[in-house]
Design brief:
By secondary structure, the protein is an alpha+beta fold. The protein has 14 helices and 17 strands. The strands form 5 sheets. The protein has an 8-stranded mixed β-sheet with strand order 1-10-11-12-15-9-8-4. Strand 11 and strand 12 form a beta hairpin. The longest helix has 37 residues. The chain starts with a helix and ends with a strand. The chain binds one RNA strand of 90 nucleotides through helix 4 and helix 5.
Length: 434
RNA sequence: GGAGGAGUGGCCGAGUGGUCUAAGGCAGCGGUUUUGAAAACCGCCGUACCCGUGAGGGUACCAGGGGUUCGAAUCCCUUCUCCUCCGCCA
């Protein structure tokens, strides 16, 4: 979340920044100024009375020992009155603070100066393109046809088990999924310096609040409960490893010389995607459950911008090693994720759709997540704690990588060439129907 | 799931209603001493927020929330976490 104090002091600047996302967004600030003033005022009043009570307590302590019952009783009655006033003020202050907090939690981050203007994904400028767009002297098939013909992809049985938007991988399909996870984790740990993490796949609401999924995006999540759907301790299935991995350091003060911290994690991801029905109804592109290898970095604020380039490069390396043609776009302000100030999407080429499709999203959150999750560090051993900057990116979405491999490396006879980098894991250089 | 026990500052640990601003120790930082080091001694040593240009002042926080009281780390209720034993179990 944004710094409430900064927002109160820079309302115009904040409003301008949010307006780059959308006009409605900047309206979220309208009540912020007066509310913050009210908070200040209440803190002043409350603390003044609390100070009086503290002073009186000392006196009461002496009176209690002195044995002057009458004076004691008189003072006690006065103080009862004071305590009542304090209680009222504290309750009021609590209400205002909760309201400030609630509002701040639903205000998105301010787009970075280098984030391009624009309203939708159509306005995202292409930064660079890697590799040659492959050409085929036959009509390239969609991955679900290729997968069905190879006997490795099964949506009918998945539907029997779990309904729409689930999939079953068979045989070499399942193995390819596993190979991709292992390949990606190996690359990031051995060559890019990431520490591998295996986190829980279910988290508390606090973790989701820390990274920004809650309170605004509850509808996109799967929530679990035992008896009571409103149970405040109910757990959610993670929509991305970003959530458990970023929150690993919630409520911590890190030492400056530990930074940057770099973690990579494989997890399944669970998304309800309530708003997206009708899109990508066929195939593996949009599923309620999918695998992803994520990379997450905790860095000093000064390094945020350069670390985004570094992290994006690490995600790109996966595609490069696999030989998959892709491009990089910069998300425009209107298309930017809630917590991000700047995001690069990697888009892989899908010949059957004659389009580039998102396979990774690499974002810089400045101190927005760190403030929510209270992730701080000391630049100097004795220095004041400061908020870190967090970044993360998919490295990569595994299911979509599998899709890209099937589609880009498909052959006219229905077989699929296995990329060099995966052959040791797969034990073969080609997937064929038998 | 059942029965017990526990949750204090980076760590250990004292503290069961009023010198409250949490004893003491360890670790850490600064200094004295020393040719240097160790040891010893002295000092410092949490976080957030509010007021103040500043020096500084104030408030809150002893797992979380609520309550009793003039006053709570200390009593009561509740949630969570951890430990021990029993049951079940990949």
């Amino acid at each position: 979340m944004l710094d409430g104090r900064w927002v109160a002091d820079h309302l115009d600047e904040a409003r301008k920044g949010l307006a780059r996302r959308s006009p409605e967004t900047s309206a979220l600030l309208d009540a912020a100024g007066p509310l913050f003033e009210r908070r200040r005022e209440l803190i002043g009043k409350t603390e003044a009375l609390q100070a009086r009570r503290n002073a009186a307590n000392e006196e009461m302590s002496k009176l209690a020992k002195g044995g002057d019952k009458a004076t004691f009783a008189a003072r006690r009655d006065e103080l009862k009155e004071l305590s009542g006033q304090i209680k009222t003020l504290e309750d009021e202050l609590g209400k205002v603070e909760r309201e400030v907090e609630e509002r701040l939690l639903s205000i998105p981050n301010l787009p970075h100066a280098t984030t391009p203007d624009g309203q939708s994904s159509d306005d995202n400028p292409v930064q660079r393109t890697w590799g040659e767009q492959p050409s085929y002297d036959f009509e390239p098939k969609p991955h679900w046809e290729i997968g069905a013909a190879l006997g490795i992809l099964d949506f009918e049985r998945a539907s029997k088990l779990s309904g729409a938007r689930f999939s079953v991988l068979w045989g070499m399909g399942a193995r390819l999924e596993r190979a991709l996870v292992a390949f990606m984790l190996d690359l990031h740990t051995r060559e890019h310096g990431y520490t591998e993490v295996y986190p829980p796949f279910m988290v508390k609401a606090a973790a989701l609040r820390g990274t920004g999924q809650l309170p605004k995006f509850e509808a996109d999540l799967f929530k679990t409960f035992r008896n009571d759907p409103e149970d405040p301790d109910a757990l959610y299935l993670i929509p991305t490893a970003e959530v458990p991995v970023t929150n690993l350091h919630a409520d911590e003060i890190l030492e400056g010389d530990q930074l940057p911290l770099a973690y990579t994690a494989y997890t399944p991801c669970f998304r309800s995607e309530a708003g997206s029905y009708g899109k990508d109804v066929r195939g593996l592109i949009r599923q309620h459950q999918f695998d992803k290898v994520e990379v997450v970095r905790f860095v000093p604020p000064e390094q945020g911008a350069q670390q985004l380039e570094l992290l994006t490069g690490h995600a790109e390396k996966v595609l490069q090693r696999l030989g998959l043609h892709y491009r990089v776009v910069a998300l425009c302000a209107g298309d930017l994720g809630f917590s991000s100030v700047k995001t690069y999407d990697l888009e892989v080429w899908l010949p059957s759709q004659n389009a580039y499709r998102e396979i990774s999203s690499c974002s810089w959150f400045t101190d927005y997540q760190a403030r929510r999750a209270k992730i701080r560090f000391r630049a100097e051993p004795k220095g004041k704690p400061r908020l870190v900057h967090t970044l993360n990116g998919s490295g990569l979405a595994v299911g979509r990588t599998l899709v890209a491999i099937l589609e880009q490396f498909q052959q006219e006879d229905g077989s699929v060439i296995v990329p060099e980098a995966l052959r040791a894991f797969m034990g073969t250089d080609r997937l064929s129907a038998r």
